[in-house]
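Sequence, please.
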């Protein structure tokens, strides 16, 4: 299967070509870039132009972008006003949030990529019919805006009342939106379970997020290499391997400050996942 690494691994560092060189030097063929402004400031033309120049001469593929979750550069710590959510029911704030996501999508004009991974609401958010209507309006707009730039929007399963596998399928059913999925293994482990979620989502999975956790906290642990995770990778890989040409193995890991050679360790994870029988 194709191997992709998310820049989530070095999200607290400004994204420069040095980091991309390290990914490429590790033998990883593609990357997902997380649109967090402390790392990739999608409004900074100088940073985008520098990365675009590097990608033009590089064999590394930009597989996908993760849509912004906050407008600030401190993971939303500046306050609730910084949250970027497509379930926002206030029209002015919703329009501003969609505009923020569009600025990220515009990167495709300089650096082509295939998918934009989008959250439906925020972690822990409760169901609200008005919020579903808001999300529908946003997704219609984003789907068209992304499509003319060669980008497909994917919805990710996240731990809230909108984004279980059942709820995602329900929302697509009532809105008639033709949107595919990014299957997050760690989030499924925290919700209905990996196998049930996969079975409900499998026809529409186009990308993945692979990481480990304890079923309660969203830890983004290195599979095999970090304590505290309880995912059965043998069973999980049997599921993922059933459709090997439909999506990649995409590691979305959290930085471990004292870990030596994290890119080599990521490659070790890829190898061990591939060798599961």
């Amino acid at each position: 299967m194709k191997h992709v690494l998310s820049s989530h691994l070095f999200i607290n560092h400004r994204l420069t070509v040095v980091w991309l060189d390290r990914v490429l030097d590790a033998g990883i063929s593609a990357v997902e870039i997380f649109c967090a402004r402390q790392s990739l400031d999608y409004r900074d033309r100088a940073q985008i132009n520098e990365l675009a120049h590097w990608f033009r001469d590089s064999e590394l593929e930009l597989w996908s972008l993760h849509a912004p979750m906050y407008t600030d550069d401190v993971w939303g710590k500046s306050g609730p006003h910084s949250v970027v959510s497509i379930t926002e029911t206030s029209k002015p704030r919703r329009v501003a949030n969609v505009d923020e996501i569009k600025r990220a999508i515009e990167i495709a004009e300089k650096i082509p990529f295939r998918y934009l991974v989008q959250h439906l609401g925020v972690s822990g958010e409760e169901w609200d019919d008005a919020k579903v209507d808001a999300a529908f309006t946003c997704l219609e707009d984003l789907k068209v805006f992304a499509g003319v730039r060669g980008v497909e929007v994917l919805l990710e399963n996240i731990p809230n009342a909108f984004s279980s596998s059942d709820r995602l399928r329900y929302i697509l059913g009532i809105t008639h939106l033709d949107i595919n999925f990014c299957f997050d293994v760690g989030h499924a482990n925290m919700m209905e379970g990996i196998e049930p979620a996969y079975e409900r989502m499998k026809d529409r999975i186009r990308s993945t997020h692979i990481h480990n956790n304890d079923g309660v906290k969203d830890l983004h642990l290195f599979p095999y290499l970090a304590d505290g995770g309880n995912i059965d990778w043998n069973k999980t890989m049997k599921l993922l391997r059933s459709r090997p040409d439909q999506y990649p193995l995409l590691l979305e890991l959290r930085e471990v400050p004292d870990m030596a050679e994290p890119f080599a360790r990521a490659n070790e994870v890829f190898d061990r996942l591939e060798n599961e029988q």
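The radius of gyration is 18 Å.
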